[in-house]
Amino acid sequence: MKVVYSDKHALHDPAFFLVRGERKESAEKPARADILLKAARAGGHEIVTPAYTGLVPVLAVHTPEYVDFLQVAQREWQKLDGAGPEVIPNVHPVRYRGSYPRAIAGRAGWHQVDGACPIGAGTWEASLAAAQVAVTAAQIVMDETRAGAAAPMAYALCRPPGHHAYADMAGGFCFLNNTAIAAQHLRTAHQRVAILDIDVHHGNGTQGIFYARNDVLTVSIHADPADYYPFFWGHAHERGEGAGEGSNLNLPLPLGSGDAIWLATGERALERIRTFAPTALVVALGLDASEHDPLQGLRITTDGFGRMASLIASLKLPTVLVQEGGYLGPELGDNLGQVLRQMSA
């Protein structure tokens, strides 16, 4: 399998993470990508450098105001008296309709939903590189499909991750929604695209981007947001709206769920995808459902990841795997290796 990777991910190295009122080291560190790359190489997969794709694929899912903010935020933030090295808002326009502010502190609150997405000096460049990784992987799959390959696959080793990013809002370690960008790029060649998100957290940004559309099916298997991040989105009653009614399926699981219920839920997800009849698939590959992951939402084994990968491969669709969560733990590389091995089998 071709693995698309950019070393520019390391330009984003967040220092600030607020956990229960205490400042902690962020779980979303460059070492994540180093472990994943090592596992991909160990599996004999071909490492590919992403093409420069510019802003067009990014602007296909994100608003111009938001993209502009990400580009200038850290630079403008540094002009404030006493500013720290990272853009971290302390005000948000929650619950009530608001107006778009001019001040950088106000724009930060408008575009950053939580404190887990600090913007540093290299965040924009790293995020854009991750988006280009996703687009390049999607283009590889499209090109191989046109060349006659049966169900080609590519893995986008994206960092920072993306599925919590809305069209105009960062959150949960995410800035540009790599999964949505890949899906939208696939839409240039496919009438119907499905997204399956198996990250331990609900892909709320991805859901929000496609919520009113019926050409992209969004399916997410995740820890129940009644008890777990992102809390406000990802509930079973959220089915889409307008033209997208019925094109969103959330399958929340109790905290601590293990392989059996996760895989059974995966069967339900695949049943819905088959009914939708897409001609291409994007998998938001979160490995943070692992029993060893520090965030401890679900309890999935390495074998469980492999079995889920086999289920997904049984769809026999052109498939882009987009890296989402999966944090520093002893099994991170093993879990990716098992997924890629079973998807390629």
From TrEMBL:
Keywords: Hydrolase, Metal-binding, Zinc. InterPro entries: HDACs, His_deacetylse_dom, His_deacetylse_dom_sf, Ureohydrolase_dom_sf. The keyword Metal-binding applies. Residues 28-342 form the Histone deacetylase domain. It comes from the Bacteria. Pfam families: Hist_deacetyl. One of its GO terms (biological process) is epigenetic regulation of gene expression. GO terms for molecular function: histone deacetylase activity; hydrolase activity; metal ion binding. Its cofactor is Zn(2+). PANTHER family: HISTONE DEACETYLASE 8, HISTONE DEACETYLASE HDAC1-RELATED. Belongs to the histone deacetylase family. This is Histone deacetylase family protein. The lineage of its organism: Bacteria, Pseudomonadati, Pseudomonadota, Alphaproteobacteria, Hyphomicrobiales.
